């Protein structure tokens, strides 16, 4: 299991020409999901074609961050600025499209066939007579998954399937942010035990968005209110170097020894990257140990002045979505 190097929430689109069924889907999906309901296939095609263009622009912004980093610009302040200046627009990008197969104007497969360039996850809802067509479409790579409408506990199955695709690594993001990691760092992140521990930590902390970087090694994360945090990660073999650095900065011998044995970490590189003149802080650390090695980590809250303002938060984005409603005919 590979830990996503970049994860954020996005919109779930539902396309079905049955107004009552579509309204039911909107009502039973988890309230924390951004959901868009569509009755017309052409409207869905237009939306996702525009979404593909917007995703490309967003990827270009991220690639520019990497380019500037290679030119010597620190990653952390660039990422914080990207989140702040984006003003929440990235949350409007579509992650998953759930499309009904049996629509008289245009079948769901034809709709998806018009969207070859759209890279999001595609789920097809089928009737009993459509399943063979769905299997063929899956084998051709036109859909990622299909779910029969007559499935027992359809709501639960559909919700779990969408949730699974929401949490899978995005291939484009993996390629972009892998560039900042060393092979050893990436090996730690792909360790099943460490990857699972990071998933659990993100859930416990309420982080809805994160980026993993290698210079310095750690994870920059946001919660729904826009509070930024830094998860500092130190492989066991780096602790001695960090302890010596803390000693050279005038830290007391007890703190230095705690860093050396991995029970504490200090955010020297974070404060250097932020450049705000704030004194680094020691923080209690915890250990994630897998087959590829031992990783010591600690969570450091980032000063609120560096976090996105209220107009750029996920909570604000969701508030602007309002009630889930069906489009007018």
Keywords, please?
13 helices, alpha/beta, 13 strands, 2 domains, five-stranded parallel sheet, about 325 residues, about 45% helix, Rossmann fold
Structure notes:
The structure is a single chain. With 329 residues, this protein is of the alpha/beta class. It folds into 2 domains: 6-170, Rossmann fold; 173-310, no CATH class. The protein contains 13 helices and 13 strands. The strands form 3 sheets. The chain has a 6-stranded antiparallel β-sheet with strand order 1-7-8-9-13-12, sandwiched between helices. α2 runs antiparallel to α3 (75-86) and α10 runs antiparallel to α11. The longest helix is centred in the N-terminal third of the chain and has 30 residues, at 41-70. The radius of gyration is 22 Å and the shape is elongated. The chain starts with 5 loop residues before the first strand and ends in an 8-residue tail after the last helix. The mean pLDDT is 92.
What is shown here, in short?
With 329 residues, the protein is an alpha/beta fold.
Number of helical runs?
13
Please identify, by name, the CATH architecture of the largest domain: 3-Layer(aba) Sandwich
Kindly identify the CATH topology of the largest domain. Rossmann fold
Helix content: 40-55%
| CATH domain class name of the largest domain | Alpha Beta
H-E order: EEHEHHEHEHEHHHHEEEHHEHEEEH
- Order of neighbouring strands in the sheet with most strands: 1-7-8-9-13-12
What is the chains' assembly state? single chain
- Share of β-strand residues: 15-25%
């Amino acid at each position: 299991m590979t830990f996503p190097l970049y994860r954020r929430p996005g919109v779930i689109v539902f396309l079905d020409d049955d107004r009552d069924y579509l309204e039911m889907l909107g009502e039973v999906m988890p309230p924390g999901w951004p959901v868009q309901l569509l009755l017309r296939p052409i409207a869905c095609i237009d939306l996702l074609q525009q979404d593909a263009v917007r995703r490309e622009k967003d990827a270009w912004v991220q690639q520019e961050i990497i380019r500037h980093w290679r030119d010597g610009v620190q990653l952390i302040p660039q990422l914080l600025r990207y989140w702040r200046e984006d003003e929440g627009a990235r949350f409007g990008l579509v992650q998953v499209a759930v499309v009904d197969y049996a629509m008289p104007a245009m079948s769901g497969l034809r709709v998806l066939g018009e969207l070859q360039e759209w890279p999001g996850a595609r789920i097809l809802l089928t009737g009993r007579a459509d399943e063979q067509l769905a299997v063929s479409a899956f084998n051709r790579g036109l859909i990622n998954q299909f779910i029969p409408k007559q499935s027992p506990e359809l709501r639960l199955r559909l919700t779990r399937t969408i949730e699974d695709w929401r949490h899978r690594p995005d291939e484009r993001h993996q390629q972009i942010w892998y560039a900042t990691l060393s092979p050893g760092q990436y090996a730690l992140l792909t360790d099943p035990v460490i990857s699972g521990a990071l998933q659990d930590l993100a859930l416990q902390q309420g982080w809805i968005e994160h980026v993993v970087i290698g210079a310095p090694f750690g994870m920059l994360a946001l919660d729904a209110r826009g509070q930024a945090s830094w998860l500092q990660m130190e492989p066991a073999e780096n602790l001695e170097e960090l302890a010596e650095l803390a000693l050279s900065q005038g830290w007391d011998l007890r703190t230095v020894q705690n860093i050396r044995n991995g029970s504490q970490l200090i955010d020297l590189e974070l404060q250097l990257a932020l450049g705000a003149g704030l004194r680094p802080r020691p923080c209690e650390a915890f250990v994630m140990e897998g087959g590829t090695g031992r990783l010591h980590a600690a969570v450091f809250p980032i000063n609120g002045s560096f976090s996105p303002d209220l107009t750029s938060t996920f909570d604000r984005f969701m508030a602007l979505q309002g009630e889930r409603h069906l489009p007018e005919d």
